[in-house]
Amino acid sequence: MTEQDKARDWLHRRPGRRPRPYPLATIAYYGPTDKRATKVVVGILKMRDDLTFMKKWFSEDQDARENTVIREQIVEFLKKHRVENVVVADRIIGCPHEEGIDYPDGGVCPQCPFWEGKDRWSGFNVN
Asked: Is 117 buried (19+), middle (13-18) or exposed (0-12) by CB count in 10 A?
């Protein structure tokens, strides 16, 4: 089994695992559209409502969900923090740019018109 296969298998075994709920990690993918992820954000909660660590990865040349280097780095990050459970978004959940940092608060990202008027959780238009 290759290292990338081990990383993929380790990530897929983690969701829904019990009995200890914490530390818990969330993995979210972001992209300019709902077809290609360019950013991954992993948050680690040591206890409920306590985001202790957060790390971001970026991939411009290929879909971040398929980037084996990123996948292996995520696994190492999760192991380092002894994560017991992982919650992974089942889709790309929005624009990779950050409101208030990359564009004004309350505005629409000028680089990602695809997401304007869309609910990021369902992907459906809200207007």
From this structure: exposed
